[in-house]
Design brief:
Chains A, B: Pfam families: LacI, Peripla_BP_3. The structure is a homodimer of 333-residue chains. The first copy, chain A, has 333 residues and is of the alpha/beta class. Helices cover 44% and strands 15% of the residues of chain A. Chain B binds a DNA duplex (30 and 30 nucleotides) through helix 2 and helix 4.
Chain lengths: 333, 333
DNA sequence: AGAGGCAGTGTTAGCGATAACACTCACGGG
DNA sequence: CCCGTGAGTGTTATCGCTAACACTGCCTCT
């Protein structure tokens, strides 16, 4: 039952026959305590099932040991993995993580989420919301709480860690060109995502650098459904031999559309994705894609935030390299 | 910069020329305050950018407004969605959510996670970890903090909300039998998951009730890879015409294996999954599966926890119905 | 031998909020 | 006209902890 008040430092002190300060010193390892005294205190702690009151501690120290994460209310593989990466790193460092989700990535909801977290007295905030709007929203945020972003754009006003989108997209495009295609089509993500921009830019510049014609961009919204629609649209396209799809989910939809319209992959068309979701190796056919180490991103993000909390100014951009994973969808015909 | 101390109630009071209690009353809406006074106080609040100190408040009220969620360190669609469902419901009710992930669902790590959360002074805890071991672990947990589980088993010692696994599996099995199959094979999940047990039991009992022979169970681990292996294994099986796979990821792997071994779905074999991940409609072929409303599960889970926190004893098991989604993988041949 | 230092412990004063109660009026009823 | 009542406000105690400093011995150094 609830209602049995918790033991306090004073209760422990009384039972151990010492002052509450001595108990505090034992608990926190601050200051010297005789071994015998320490043992007595610990016995009392054990007996009373004492647990420090974090509110009282926070009140006097000004530190809560809490971090806030603003997360997209989504189960997209990337954001979800990043969240766990951050949580793991934070927990190892003794921080707890409070999560607030936003359904729409507009300025108001981000600001609300941050405000909510500040009211919770978090020591620092990570924003996972890789939209253009997010970057802009962050530019207007009050700066009295350390803030870092993940997956953000190059002009973000806060430190950012992310997988190197440009590099990944360049690699996959070059991989396709190296297979002998005259050009590579692109199914992009939503225009307001920063990752979309990076991937699209890399694709475009890589084509240009190789003297290839740059086809019009087909745009999706990351969902398989939109990939499917893009696939139906591209199916009628003459001269289509290679497609770089901006994420694996859309690539799945596109593969489905191609299959329905009698286009064989990889025989007729090569297809590559981005993300390397765990399922990508079991698509039909298994998908060539770009692997992102989201856990590492989470780790670095936490590290940057920790630096900020400690009062240092970390580097502003911290890129994790991407890895090209070649599978059958760009395999021998 | 950090370092500019936050304004306190007293600061606001001074600026507004009232006592700190009056400010407190304005902030919390407790007790009567003259309209003119309130306005003056609010102006001071605004001017000083005052934000209540949650630690001080928690210290004196004994309420932190914090809930803890023990989550599987996984990006599985179900657990991730449930997390967001809980977070949404909690936020609407004014609670914040602290998340702690566990990588292995054994008793020790669950106990550690709960201990961590208790140290954070959460008012209640939700455990998302639908393993047999979890249920057992919870049986031994100290009961002085309200605790509910999600996706748990029927013998769990705490309130539980979940999608009705049994019902969903029964429906999908009956759907397959109704298509004229003499029996239905089953690729099950890991034996230590509660959901695995429910789905498997429903499948078995449904077959028996219809007088169908019960084939041996092939077991996977939820991953596409394991589904693929199950598919390779089943491909050689004589008389195989229908397979119920315990989740969509494994079904994807199985479809891949069937495709490689020349088995046509749905022409030669019917396949159904479970979960209705957003991609399931774009598998090859689109997958018949069972939809689970994880958001609703999250909502109900929060509601149960709120009841517990309020000191009431909610019903012990709260089941959300499952929905059968029929697609081409069990379609006309 | 006296001063200084340090291990080991205690005392006191807040941190910033709410709870509980006290006080001052103005007003209405007997 | 006096008193009870309730609106509006203030005073004080307290939540559980840590910071800062004070105190007591005992040991070491000069």
């Amino acid at each position: 039952m609830t209602g049995v008040r918790h033991a306090s430092l004073t209760d422990v002190a009384e039972l151990a026959g010492v002052s509450h300060m001595t108990v505090s010193r034992v608990i926190n390892g601050t200051g010297p305590v005789r071994a015998e005294t320490r043992a007595r205190v610990l016995a009392a702690v054990e007996k009373l099932d004492y647990r420090p009151n974090s509110a009282a501690r926070a009140l006097v120290t000004g530190k809560t040991g809490n971090l806030g994460v603003v997360a997209l209310d989504s189960t997209l593989y990337g954001p979800a993995s990043t969240l766990y990466g951050i949580e793991n790193a934070a927990r190892e460092a003794g921080y707890s993580v409070t999560i607030t989700s936003v359904s729409a990535p507009n300025r108001t909801s981000i600001a609300d989420a941050i405000e909510t977290l500040r009211r919770q007295a978090v020591e620092g905030i990570v924003v996972i919301a890789p939209h253009v709007a997010t970057g802009k929203a962050l530019a207007h945020m009050p700066s009295d709480v350390p803030l870092v972003a993940v997956g953000g754009g190059e002009h973000a006003p806060v430190p950012v860690s992310a997988v190197d989108q440009y590099d990944g997209a360049r690699r996959v495009t070059e991989h396709l060109l190296a297979l002998g295609h005259r050009t590579v089509w692109h199914v992009a993500g939503p225009a307001d995502w920063l990752e979309t921009r990076d991937r699209e830019l890399a694709w475009r510049e890589t084509l240009e650098r190789h003297g290839a014609k740059v086809p019009r961009v087909v745009r999706g919204d990351w969902s398989s459904r939109s990939g499917y629609e893009a696939g139906r649209e591209l199916a009628g396209q003459k001269g289509l031999t290679a497609v770089f799809v901006a994420n694996d989910q859309m690539a799945l939809g596109l593969l489905r559309a191609f299959s329905e319209t009698g286009i064989a992959v990889p025989k007729d068309v090569h297809v590559a994705g981005f993300d390397d979701v765990p399922e990508a190796a079991y698509f039909s056919p298994p998908l060539t894609t770009v692997r992102q180490d989201f856990i590492e991103v989470g780790r670095r993000t936490f590290r940057q935030l920790a630096e900020r909390i400690a009062g240092r100014q970390p580097q502003v951009r911290d890129l994790v390299p991407a890895e090209l994973i070649v599978r059958e969808s760009t395999g021998p015909r």
